[in-house]
User: Fold these one by one.
Assistant:
Number 1:
Amino acid sequence: MSTKQVNRADIIFSPYSVAPYEILRLSMQKTKPEVIEEITESGLRGRGGAGFLTGLKWKFFANTDGDEKYIICNADEGEPGTFKDRKLLVEVPRKVISGMAIAAYACNATKGVIYLRAEYNNLIPALKKELDIFDEHAKKFGLKFKIEIFSGAGAYVCGEETALIESMEGQRGEPRNKPPFPIQNGYLGKPTLVNNVETFATASMVCRYGASTYKTYGTSDQRGSKLFSISGDSPKEGVFELELGMKISDFVEEFGDGDTKAVQVGGVAGFCIPRKQFETAIVGEGNTTGGATMIFNSTRSMYNVLHNYLDFFAEESCGQCTPCRVGTQQLLKGIEAVKSGTKPVEYLDDLIKLSKTMQITSKCGLGQSVTNSFTSIVQNFKEEMIY
Ligand SMILES: Cc1cc2nc3c(=O)[nH]c(=O)nc-3n(C[C@H](O)[C@H](O)[C@H](O)COP(=O)(O)O)c2cc1C
Ligand code: SF4
């Protein structure tokens, strides 16, 4: 192994050799389809967790008609273990804002919203100053795009794009049925593009460096670099920008404490990878990760880890659909019963089946993703689940 596999990238946090609003100005000298083509060509995937191709999303959005089209920057950042969007908003807000503005130009949107989780309200004064500076530039460039800040109400599920829109409209933060997707029918019934904070910042950098340069980082499926929020048993906790494509073994060598037994990739909605699978890539083909990466060493009880996750899911389930509302509670009670000896170890298999049923039948990504961490922990650390 060589730590060279964990390449520190310097794209998103690259120094301002070209100021973000200069990138906007230069982008506006291109045609709108050219800007979208640049993003498409870069292969950038959304950094909010689902990994949808950003260029494709922008193209769909550009093709929707409407006198009022919205762009929402999803800064809800509720996934336990992630704190990268906060760093972007604090350290490079102009890259985020210019990414939103480039999307607005390319897709003909006139209104923007930064949906900020309530815990980040302390960032509002500084962001407002940044938005005033942006307004001056937008005016100078002849771009009609006004961004406001909306403060969320602190629920994890409000990070889901349709629940986020519901909460902006004053309703309970509950996911909508899809279709229609926000791009067709979003905030106030208008076409709405929702992208993650990091997606906008990266899009701006793609326009800065060009898709051909950006593509030289990462793998054919996972292009570029991304931010990883690293926490747990690591001497180097924090936010790091890393080139995509690294193996977990290399990641652990760089960030672990020498005693790593598992790595949770993609936050609680992601997978818990045991040591025997460390040769796999940290971001699998065809998907991406929000970048919440928690490292556990041998002193950690994986039962406690799982209990903690399930407690969180049961608490955060919006309760709208039965598989998730009841399933999260049953999984929690189920592992407690096995741990106390009230139920036999075989009961864990029934619980795995339940979690897979939740994956198929739940309405949104919260209930659908519980099986990822549940199954990976129960199967790989069964001996820690029993009495
Ligand atoms: C329960 C749940 C929570 C989510 N939380 C966030 C979040 O905090 N931030 C975010 O950008 N996306 C979050 N998402 C994903 C969004 O629904 C959406 O896919 C994303 O904002 C799209 O942006 P992207 O294409 O740039 O990734 C969440 C999804 C689910 C199901
Ligand atoms: S899966 Fe859970 S969070 Fe999502 S709509 Fe159903 S109950 Fe609500």
Note: DSSP finds 14 helices and nine strands in the chain.
Number 2:
Amino acid sequence: MTLTCPNCGNARSFLIKTLQMHVVQIQGDRVDVAEEGRPGIIECLCDECDTTLAFDEVDDALRKEILLALGAR
Ligand SMILES: [Zn+2]
């Protein structure tokens, strides 16, 4: 398992941005969330120096672990 910042060498702490979609239905004065997608990862940054990391290139096993931990897809 490896995810290492190429700039500062940090391999422990990362900032991951996710995007989640919701379908909201409004009926009169009632608001329902009809559907919630699982969050998708849109960006992965080094938490130490803010370098953008290529999350697509992270090795499969680690990527799955991270996705699982985030409840993402
Ligand atoms: Zn870094």
Note: The radius of gyration is 16 Å.
